[in-house]
Amino acid sequence: MKRVSLVLSLLALLLFASCAPGALVELKPGAEELKRMSVFLSNFTEVGFFEIQDVSWLTPEDLVYFGVRHNVINNFKSRVRACAVKNCPHGKLTLEAKWVAESVKKYFDIDFKDHGDAGEPIPIHYDGKLYHFDRADGEKVYYAQVQTVSRDGNVFHFKGHLYNIKDKKDIPALFRAAAKAHTFGGKNTWALLSMETLWN
Asked: Helix %, strand %, coil % for the chain, to 5?
């Protein structure tokens, strides 16, 4: 069953690839590099960013949501604090705006300064310094598994599948994504340009 599922997944991936850009150089990254690429893209899928036609179309509210959710998931103990106001009307948790800006810069290469409230899918309030919100739990979380990589100059094209982090046999979708080479904190990484997901 698992082999049949994998074959179907690969066939769908080939069909999905037929819409990809033209002259690309196929890369053969090793296991560690594939893992690093997968982790990079999982930073988007774990917060529910599955469809991004072009990052320039993302609204400030989208970027606020990404920055807050990314830090809640990955930096909860070091950056997220309880609201200092008793019975805080805007949520029990807070995050400094600088961490949102840092995350947006790291993953999108956007210098973010347009801080403000975000309403979907969870209410996030900005008080001029801190973001206030409540934790959203109980949602299915999907990670990205990169299977093939191509490059066109400074732009990398990734293809692979999504899987449920609680059940790796649950593979509900294929994806393709593009990202440019990017340096952050003195380390070579990528900045997302687009992502498209094909659900089963």
From this structure: 30, 30, 35
Contact between 143 and 165 (Cβ < 8 Å) = yes
If one counts every other C-beta atom within 10 angstroms of the C-beta of residue 132, the result is: 21
pLDDT for 40? 98
Three-state secondary structure string covering 35-64: HHHHHHHHHHHCCCCCCECCHHHCCHHHHH
pTM of the predicted model, to two decimals?
0.87
Look at the alpha carbons of 19, 45, 133, 136 in this order and tell me if their dihedral is positive or negative: positive
CA distance 96 to 130: 5
Dihedral-angle region of residue 153 (phi above 0 means left; psi in -120 to 50 means alpha; beta otherwise): left
CA separation for the pair 112, 101 (Å, rounded)? 5
As a whole number of angstroms, the distance between CA 150 and CA 155 comes to: 9
- CB-count exposure of residue 91 (10 Å: 0-12, 13-18, 19+): middle
Strand, helix or coil at 67?
Answer: helix
List CB contacts of 114: < 8 A, sequence separation 6 or more.
60, 63
Q: In the chain, which stretches have pLDDT less than 70?
A: 1-22, 138
Residue 16 parent element (H or E): helix 2-17
